[in-house]
Amino acid sequence: MSWIILAALGAIALGLLWLLGAPRALWTFGAAALMLGAAGYALQARPGLPGAPVSAAKKTRPDDAALRDLRGAMFGRFTSIDASFFAADALVRGGNAEKAARLMLGSVRASPNDAALWTWLGMTLVEADDQTVSPAAGVAFRRAMVLAPAHPGPPFFYGLAQVRAGNFAAARPLWRKALALAPEGAGYQRDIAIRLALLEQLLEMQRSGEQTAPQPQPVR
User: Fold this and answer.
1) CA of 45: how far to CAs of 6, 38, 39, 183, in Å?
2) Same domain, yes or no, for 69 and 34?
3) Which domain holds residue 35?
């Protein structure tokens, strides 16, 4: 039975990798890690042992070509802001998310009415804050939505940031809005729809689990 549970957890984990926007190259690594972890646990699991502290390492990121393509599909390619995007991408990949956020802040100051730049300032701030949607990141995303109220990009990436931060309920209205704003027939419309459907299923599973969980009995 434990192997069935491990297989189910593996399938859920891979689904979450896609939902979180992880690059496809990471899927294979994730699958291999799950298999190795399951085998190792089955062979020599010792859950009673205390954990050991590890030293912090520079948090580099894999190249996320899928997310970059999605950004280009929504905001356009070969534009004047590509230089800011690509430079920020390179800094994030190298583990310099704080520098990426400062770079995007400078770009926003130079072009304060560009919704795409505000959106990516929000994304880099989330990276710099270790996948936390800080008040500053929220301001950046909301400013982008005010500047381009009919564009699906700002609410989609705001929702993606919320998902990566674990704020699934907060992401749902943002992705619903992004899907409603996506042009009919746009290549990314289906991508948004699938992500939203997975998110809805996840939230429904959470709700069902809360309803079936045993309620604490009053102390007498």
Assistant:
1) 14, 9, 9, 51
2) no
3) 2-40
